[in-house]
Structure formats: C-alpha cells, structure tokens
Amino acid sequence: MGLVEAIVFRGWPRPERPEKLVLDLTRPSLCGIRLGEPGSRVREVLGAPASWREKLKRGCWAYPAWGLRVDVPAEREVESFRIALQRPEEGLTSTRLPWQSFSGQIVLPQQTVPASRLTTRQVFEAAFQGPSEVEEVMGDTVLTWERDGWILEVAFHPEGGPLYVDVQRDD
Length: 171
Prior knowledge:
Blueprint: H1 3-8, E1 22-24, E2 29-30, E3 33-34, H2 39-46, H3 52-58, E4 60-63, E5 68-71, E6 80-84, E7 105-108, E8 111-114, H4 121-128, E9 133-137, E10 140-146, E11 150-156, E12 162-169
Parallel strand pairs: 1-7
Antiparallel strand pairs: 1-2, 2-3, 4-5, 5-6, 6-12, 7-8, 9-10, 10-11, 11-12
C-alpha cells in the first residue's frame, strides 16, 4: 500500500486475509458479502482496497493479493464482484496491480470446490445447466447465466481454463 492509500484509508481495517475466502454461487456472496449490501459491509469484512484511484474514480474495491474485486459505485451498494482464476496477471482492473489467483472455495449447487480445481467449463455447465448466452470476446469464451435477480459470467481462455468469475446484480 502506497503513501496515498495509507492517508486515504487511514483508520480502515486491514485484515491479512478475509475470515471466509469463499465465493458462494448458490446465493451470490463473496466472503459473506451479498449483492445489494451497503459499501460499509465491504469495508468491515475486507478492509482497505489496494488502489484509491480505482475506488474513488470507478467504485472498484480491488484486493489483488486475494484475487478479488468488489464494485460499489458511489459507496452505496454492492453491484458486482469478480474473482481471478487462471492468468491473474491480466488483472481485474485497468491499473497494473500485482494480481494473484483467488485461493478460496467456490460453492456451486451440490458441491464446494477449491478455486484451483476449477479447470474446465464443464464444471460450470453441469452445475448451472446450459448457459443463456455464449460469446467470444477478444479470443476468450464468455458463458453467461441469467439467474433469479443476478447474472453469472465465466470467461475461459482459448486453451479452456477459466480466467475469471463475475457476479452482478440484474436490476
């Protein structure tokens, strides 16, 4: 954390790691934070983000050491969250932060899996049935599932491994 971040986020909690490093895709939550919860909940659970620029300009609370980001526009409510799986160096933000892969658990219908063991799209297709949309974006394949009040997107690189999982509100 740089000098500006130390000043901007003075007094914020700084956990070494969230108590529960879990992405629950059965009732969407990340580290116990649900979509629609207030930004204060993110501060309470995850503490200070890595970049003041991303937070203040875009509402993106980036935690590259844990491989996750939470979007809270204007510090109101959690709109979305995303985790990096393979190739974390590509990052989840526009700034060059030192991204790591998400090392927690992912809760799918009928099973909980370590993120490191999610290696194919078949795992997601079996858990959520066929996606509602499949598209190619800059060479990657993005699968989208429209759920009850939220959207799940999973991107896969051409070799087949998952790049990221994105969960967002469907207003």
